[in-house]
Amino acid sequence: MLAMNYRGPYRVRADEKPMPQILHPEDAIIRVTRSCICGSDLHLYHGMVPDTRVGMTFGHEFCGIVEQVGPAIQNLKVGDHVLVPFNIACGKCHFCQQGLFGNCHESNAQATAVGGIYGYSHTAGGYDGGQAQYVRVPYADVGPTVIPDWMDPDDAVLLTDVVPTGYQAAEMGAIKPGDTVVVFGAGPVGLMAARSAWLFGAGRVIVIDCEEYRLEFARTFGPAEVYNFREIDDVVVFLKKQTDSLGADVCIDAVGGDASGNALQWFFGTKLKLEAGNAIALHWAINSVKKGGVVSMVGVYGPTGNMVPIGNVVNKGITIRANQASVKRLLPRLIEHIRAGHINPKAMITHRVPLADVADAYHIFAAKLDGCIKPVLLPNGA
Amino acid sequence: MAQALVDTSTIPGWGVDTDPKNNPTYPMRHIEDQKTRGLTWHRPPLQEPQVEVLQSIEHNRLPAVVGTSTPPSGLSGAIRRYAFRRSESDWWHWLLLMGADRINVVEGVIEDLAAGKVPNVPAEMGAKSEWQHNKNGFLLKAGATLAIGAVLVAIVQARREDRADEDEGETIAAEPAHVTARVDEPVLPADLATSQVVPLPGLDA
């Protein structure tokens, strides 16, 4: 089968690889119909996540047709078209029982700090991902959800990560009616966080980024007030002025370690990799939120350390909430929102690319070329 | 720069998920079944790994399912095994893994070459799309790459020429010593040179 093949930082290609096999009674093999490149895949692509091995196949946002099931599978049958949450979750452990499907204790041998994630380095379990024609899906009775007949598969594939991650970012903000919410990052997750903030009753939503085309998209998709930080002397002072000097009620970091905006952080974090990426978005979030406010983090950082003003968290009495999205927990509500027309995820898809051109798809997305917001790979044709 | 506020009445679904009970501890404290505390849950069937799987020392048992992509191998694999002797809290654990990742890239190139495949690095880096969507950037990068390449070639060439000159100079400088040695060779030690031939007894003609 054809599959994406990581060869090193900034280098990927499509290669022939062996077909995946059932290795556990609760496995399924899925023939992938759509597979997105996620902003967090770029952390891998840039070599920022430890234990990212040459030869691995990335891809944690995918949907597809059930091709084969293990002997213990009861909820799926061959031929079902399913969307597959990016979390590999057993559904039984201490954490899954709390709805923390992103923190499963039975899916990642290499680390306890995160549950298993498809195609996201060995730090997230060492599973090959869905940027391939076929993929092995463990615990297939727990995660995969049959796509409703009325749902566009383009919406379905975005329910595997982007939509729930953006929604959970707003949820973790504990937004109260009328709150001012600042979202750092106008990528797909930031866009969904901005859109979701309204569902929780925000009174004002502000999006900060440096890419004009993304800000323009956010202005209508959010909708939101949008500001380019490259046109602002000091982001924190600007946001304080926007909020009567008090600061925002909720700040959301929807960027993670691949941020722009601070030369020192970029050099030590992004280039020298002495930090777990560039944490300027989190830095701004901590300093822009009001005293007693909430900083919600869904941006992905590596497992080492970052320079952030942690003292201000104490001095301002800030609550920081963060997690990998618990996709399975959120899916029923998000499916309702799509059906009701409250959200329209597929509007974010800008590029459809055959798997054979995966290297170009990564480059276009990473370098923000051609107005790219969300690329989708088509491993088995359109 | 100030922009108009968004009118919330125009937003479909505004406020439908407002939840006054949403507090910062949800869902972390959403524990209703105390039986799930500790490693007491009914485990799924256990996968038997057919490849080497490294395990965090913070786990006291292997999870029920494991990933089997790209098992550790070569020098990078040895470093990864060593890194996994340390906890996730130990900075060295991650730095060693990052180092192994970089070595693994070189191993990947060797693996390609051994399989008779020369990696097309520009294609793997998306050069085609760079050319299509960012010609100036492509030309800038290509120019910079060529310039750096030319400088490196010039440096290597200059060093080779310097070394060749040095070798030639060393040969010329070494010549007299060699000749001296040849001249010295037949010179007998002083004691032998001044010694007299002593006839052995009984050998007189």
Automatic annotation (TrEMBL), chain A:
InterPro entries: ADH-like_C, ADH-like_N, ADH_Zn_CS, GroES-like_sf, NAD(P)-bd_dom_sf
Record's keyword terms, sorted: Metal-binding, Oxidoreductase, Zinc
CDD domains recorded: FDH_like_1
Record domain Alcohol dehydrogenase-like C-terminal: where: 188-265
Domain Alcohol dehydrogenase-like N-terminal: 25-144
Cofactor: Zn(2+)
The organism's place on the tree of life at top rank: Bacteria
GO terms assigned for molecular function: oxidoreductase activity; zinc ion binding
Family designation: Belongs to the zinc-containing alcohol dehydrogenase family.
Protein name: Threonine dehydrogenase-like Zn-dependent dehydrogenase
Source species: Sphingomonas aerophila
From TrEMBL, chain B:
Region named Disordered: 1-26
Sequence ranges of Polar residues compositional bias: 1-11
Name of this chain's protein: Uncharacterized protein
